[in-house]
Amino acid sequence: MPASSISAPRRLIDVALPLPVFQTFRYAVDGDPPSRNPIVPGSRVVVPLRGGRAIGICVGDSVAAGGEPSHGGGTAVQAAPRIKPILDVPDPGPAVPAALLDVCRWMADYYVVPLGIVLRSALPALLTGAARPSPAPRSRRVAVIRRHLPSLLERDQLFARAARQRQAFELLESLGGRSPADHLVERLGCSPGVLVALARRGLIALEKESVSRDPFAARDVAASAPLAPTPAQAAAIAAITAGAAGQGFLLHGITGSGKTLVYLEVLREVVDRRGQSAIVLVPEIALTPQTVDRFRAVFGDKVAVLHSSLSDGERYDAWRALRSGERRIAVGARSAIFAPLDNLGAIIVDEEHEASYKQGESPRYHAREVAVVRARVAGAVVVLGSATPSLESWVTASRGGYRLLTLPERVGGGRLPAVELIDLRTRNEERGTGARAGAGILSPALDRALDECLTSGGQSILLLNRRGFASFIQCSACGDVAACPSCSISLTYHRTPERLICHYCRYQEPPRAACPKCGGATLRQRGLGTQQVERLLSERFPAARLARMDVDTTSGKWAHADILDRVGRGEIDILLGTQMIAKGLDFPNVTLVGVIDADVGLNLPDFRASERTFQLLSQVAGRAGRGARGGRVIIQTRLPAHHALRHAAAHAYQAFVDEELPARVKPAYPPVIRLANLLCSGDDESATARLAEELAGWMQALVVRRGAAGVTVVGPAPCPIDRLKDRWRWHVLLKAEHSGSLTRVLRFLATRFEVPPRHRLRLTIDRNPVSLL
Ligand code: ADP
Ligand code: ZN
Asked: Which atom of ligand 1 is nearest to the CA of 229?
C-alpha cells in the first residue's frame, strides 16, 4: 500500500463497485508514483474493500466531501482522513471509453440498477475479477452414424438387451447423425462406454476432430462478388448512409427482401470508406451462422464475432482487439452492444423484435433500447431491421422517432409463399385418413405435402414450439398432473433419455410407474412435443433424413451450426424444431414449411401472446420458397379466425398491427403506455403476498402524495407462474403515460422502499418487461 502523503490537496475519485447498492464509493489517490497509470473516468482501479480488494471503475473526480452526490443515491461519504487510498491502476488507458460510460450511466438510471452492476456486465469477466483464464480443449471426439436402421423390427432386435445403446443411437439420429461424443454422454447421462459399444458393433464411428480457439474463425466463408442492390435496397442504403448523427431507422423488409445486403453496404460505407467502427446485433449467434458468415465474408479480419460459447480468455481477446481498434466491427448477441469501440458510425439491430435482446437478470436491459441510446451518445446511426417489427418500434416510427424504410418485395421477383390454414377442429382433418402413422398429428394436407416434397427432392421445415415428448403426464384415475416440486409448472415427459423434466429449473426425475397420489397405474401422456413428432415422422417417412433442433439437441457448442450446415448441404430432408428454426435461415431448397400446432403460445397469459405468435408464424413461413422452385406453407390450428393467424397467413403486417394496437388500449399495455413489472418473491407464500400488498399500498400512496402524473398501480396479484425454483412470486404493475415520470417513481422506490430481511424476500424491478409470466 502506498504511504499516505501529507501534502494537500488529496485527489479524491468516485468509484463504481459491482455491489447491489445505489452509491459510488470515494477513494483517495495518494501520491503519484511515475509508474502509475493515469486515472480518468472509465479507468479500472483496484481498491481496498472490507479487508480484501475489489476491482472498480473510476467514474469521475469527487467534488469536495459533502458536495453533490455523484450518482443516484449519492456517494458514500466518509470523514476525509478515513478515505482509503486506491491500491493500483492496472491499465494504461480507460477500459470503458467515455461514450460507453455515458451509456452505462443512462442504463443505471433508466433500468434502476447500480452503476457498478451495469459496468460489470459491460466488461469481460476477466477484467472485473469475476473469472480466471482457463485453457480450452484442443480436440474432441465426434460420433457419426455408420449404419442407418430404417426398419423398426431390426432396431428392436438389435437393441433388445441394450436400451442405453438404443437411446444413444436415437439421440444421434435426432441430431442428424453427427454429434460431439461428450454432448451425447452429457445429454444421456450415460458412460462413454455405451458409444464405444455402438462403435464396436459398426453402428457408429468415433472420429477425432480438432477444435480451434475461435470456432467461427474455422468456418469457411467464401468471399463472394458484391451483389448489385435492388432499387429498394439502394434507396434504403442511401437514406441510412446520409443519416444524421444519432438518427434511427426502422428497416421493415419482408422475409427474403435482402435486409442483410443493406446492412453490409451501410458498413462498407461507414467502416471501409469513413474508417469508423460498427456494431451488428443478431438475436442468437448460434442460430444465425449464415448471417454472421456473410459479414465475415465481406469484412474478414475487421470482424470480431462475440458469441456465448467463447471462453473467458477468448472473450477477452476479442474485447482487446476491439478496444485497440485492431478489429472494428463487433458482431454478436445482446451483450455485443457493449463492444468497447471508439468512433462508432453505425449500429445494426437485426430481427429487432426478438425477445432474446432482453436480459433476464440484472441489469434487465433491452439491447435495442441501449443501441438507440448508444447511437445517440456516439453520434452514430442505428438501424432496426425486421420483417415483423415490434409494436414499440412501429409506433415510434409512426410518430417520427425513427425514419421508416421499406423493402416491400422479395429479391429477384420471388413471391411470398402461399399459406394454407388447416382447421384441426374439422373432424377428418384431425383424424386423418385410416391408420396411417402420424394421423392426429399430421393432417392429410400436411402429410401429402411432406410426401410430395420428399418425392420431388425438396426440403421441409416443420415447426412445433414445444420440446420434449409429451408436455405433461396425467393420471387417468384421479387426474393428477405430474408437477415440479419447486415450480408451479407441470413436468415434461422426455423419451431420450427417459425422464420427467421441469423446463424452468431443470429438475428431473425418473418416469413414474404409478400415480403418487392415488396409486393408479394408467398415466397418460398429454400434449405433443418435438420428440414425439420426430418419432412419428421416422415411422411415417422411414427413408427421410430427419434432424431435430431444439434445446435438447443443441446444448453442444456448435450443434446448431452443425445441423444448419447439413441442411445447407442438402443432407437433411426434414428439419423439425422449436422456434429456433424460424430465425434468419436462407435455404433456397426449402419448398415446404409446416406448423404442427400454431396455438401453442397463443393462450399464454401475456399481453404479447398474439404478437409473438404472429411474428413466429411470419418468420417461419418466410423460410419457404426462397428459391426458384417457390414454396408453400401449411399451418395447423384450432383458432383459424384469430387475427394473429389470419394476418400471418396473408403476410399482412399492417393489418395485424391495426387490429392488435387497439387491443392494447384497454387494459392499457405497451406501446400504448410505459410498463414496469415489480416482482416480489420469497421462500414463504404469505410473507411474499404481504410484501406485494405493502408495496402496492406504498406505491399508491406515493402516486397520490407526489401527484405522479399519469402513473397507475395495478395489483398486487400472484404471477401466472406463482412459484419458481422454490420461490413464491407476486407482482405489481406500474403503468405510466410518460417515460420520465416512470423513471422518477422507480428510482424513488429503489432507494426508499425497504424489503424486510425475512424469508429471503426480494423485490425485482423489471422495466419494459418482455414477459409477465
Ligand atoms: P432477409 O434477411 O431480408 O430475409 P436476406 O438478406 O437473407 O433476406 O436475403 C435473401 C437472399 O437474397 C439472400 O440469399 C441474398 O444473398 C439474396 N440477395 C439479397 N440482395 C440481393 C441482390 N440485390 N441481388 C441478388 N441477390 C440478393
Ligand atoms: Zn421446476
From this structure: 23
Number of the ligand closest to the Cα of 490: 2
The pLDDT assigned to 434 comes to 40
Taking the whole predicted model, whether its pTM rises above 0.90 is answered as no
Contact 422, 446 (CB under 8 A): yes
Q: To which residue does cell 424489503 refer?
A: 755
Residue closest by Cα to atom 19 of ligand 1: 258
Cell 438510471 maps to which residue? 109
Report the atom number in ligand 1 closest to the C-alpha of 294: 16
pLDDT for position 510? 87
379 dihedral zone (left: phi>0; alpha: psi -120 to 50; beta): left
Q: What is the DSSP-derived secondary structure letter of residue 481?
A: B
The closest residue, in CA terms, to atom 23 on ligand 1 is 229
Indicate the burial class of 606 (C-beta count within 10 angstroms; 0-12, 13-18, 19 or more). Answer: middle
**178, three cell numbers:** 453427427
CB-count burial class (<10 Å; 0-12, 13-18, 19+) for 512: middle
Looking at the CA of 621, name the nearest ligand: 1
In tens, the pLDDT along 394-426 reads: 999 999 999 999 999 888 777 888 899 998 887
For strand 418-423 and strand 632-637, is the pairing parallel, antiparallel, or unpaired? parallel
Other Cβ atoms less than 10 A from the Cβ of 764: the count is: 14
Collapsing DSSP to helix, strand or coil, 649 comes out as: helix
* Closest C-alpha to 229, from 274, 263, 272: 263
Q: 3-state DSSP call for residue 710?
A: coil
Residue by residue, DSSP assigns 515-582 as: -TTT--S-EEEEEE-HHHHHHHHHHHSTTS-EEEESTTT--STTHHHHHHHHHHTT--SEEEESGGGG
Give the model confidence (pLDDT) of 740-756 as tens digits.
889 999 998 988 888 88
Residues 6 or more apart in contact with residue 556 via CB below 8 angstroms = 179, 180, 182, 183, 562
> CB neighbours of 487 closer than 8 A, spacing ≥ 6?
502, 504, 505, 507, 721, 723, 724, 725
Q: What span, in angstroms and rounded, lies between the C-alpha atoms of 761 and 763?
A: 7
Q: β-strand 418-423 against 381-386: which pairing, if any? A: unpaired
C-alpha 583 to ligand 1 mean position (Å): 15
- What is the pLDDT at residue 223? 65
Show the ligand 1 pocket: residues with CB < 6 angstroms.
227-230, 233, 253, 255-261, 411-412, 584, 586
Atom of ligand 1 nearest to the CA of 290: 7
Residues of the chain with pLDDT under 70: 1-9, 31-35, 64-81, 130-139, 150-151, 210-224, 286-287, 427-439, 554-558, 584, 707-708
Burial class (CB in 10 A: 0-12, 13-18, 19+), 540: middle
Contact yes or no for 283/583 (Cβ under 8 A): yes
Q: C-alpha distances in angstroms, 481 versus 473, 484, 505, 527? A: 6, 10, 18, 12
Residue with cell 431435430: 548
Q: How far are the Cα atoms of 207, 277, 308, 395, 406 from residue 320, in angstroms, in the given order?
A: 35, 14, 17, 38, 37
CB-based contact 140:181 (threshold 8 Å): yes
Which residue shows C-alpha cell 436462407?
586
Residue 108 is predicted with a pLDDT of 95
For ligand 2, a single-atom ion, the residues with CB < 5 A are 484, 486-487, 502, 504-505, 507
Asked whether the beta carbons of 617 and 645 are under 8 A apart, the reply is: yes
- Among 615, 708, 704, residue whose Cα is nearest residue 656: 615
